């Protein structure tokens, strides 16, 4: 495998591992709900905490993707700074298909209107 492929594979495995662990928050929220249902623990804070914990995976998943994929991270940082990125990505390989420069052996010429 090339260095580029290994890097992308490692990146994918890391993101999938973190996202696979996110349902644990849902199980924790369900456990807290069951404790409140059987009146083991009670209170309005418990009800709010249950819904906050259950919604955490929906919040954390996009954050994980944005922080671990370089092109998304650079775009998010440039949006937060309200300016275009001042430097090219620091990696020497492309993270995304759009990062690969398109080159051809001969120049592309526009089609003249007489062909239509």
UniProtKB/TrEMBL annotation:
Its main location: membrane. Keywords: Membrane, Transmembrane, Transmembrane helix. One of its GO terms (cellular component) is membrane. It holds the Pfam family 7TM_GPCR_Srd. It is found in: Membrane. The chain crosses the membrane at residues 12-36, 48-69. It is a multi-pass membrane protein. Belongs to the nematode receptor-like protein srd family. PANTHER family: SERPENTINE RECEPTOR, CLASS D (DELTA)-RELATED, SERPENTINE RECEPTOR, CLASS D DELTA. This is G protein-coupled receptor. It comes from Pristionchus mayeri.
């Amino acid at each position: 495998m090339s260095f580029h492929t290994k890097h992308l594979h490692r990146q994918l495995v890391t993101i999938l591992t973190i996202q696979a662990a996110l349902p644990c928050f849902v199980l924790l929220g369900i456990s807290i709900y069951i404790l409140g249902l059987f009146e083991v623990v009670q209170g309005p804070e418990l009800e709010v905490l249950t819904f906050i914990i259950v919604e955490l995976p929906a919040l954390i998943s996009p954050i994980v993707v944005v922080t671990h994929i370089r092109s998304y991270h650079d775009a998010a940082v440039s949006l937060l700074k309200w300016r275009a990125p001042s430097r090219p990505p620091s990696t020497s390989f492309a993270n995304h298909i759009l990062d690969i420069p398109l080159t051809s052996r001969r120049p592309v010429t526009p089609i003249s209107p007489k062909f239509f």
